[in-house]
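Recap from last week: sequence in, structure out.
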Amino acid sequence: MTQAIGIRVYQLARELQVTSGLLLELLDRSGCPVRSDLSVLDARAAATIRNRVTWALASERRRRARRKRGDEQPAPEGQGRLIRFPIRP
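Predicted structure tokens:
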């Protein structure tokens, strides 16, 4: 019997220091069939998610740094900032 090579969703979430729910939503939007945080991702899907989450977190850090310097105004009340992940087929 061959063993699946990959990583579970919850392990990847722990590695990236984000919630499993965030990864599950991102995987769903990407069209990756996962049922729960115990699902196993293949190496390619894990690498794609790592890149997207790392990019989004770095982008958010840069935005916060600009805001702290005063280069960017905060969003009006009730209009939070939405981070959009690039979705490629």
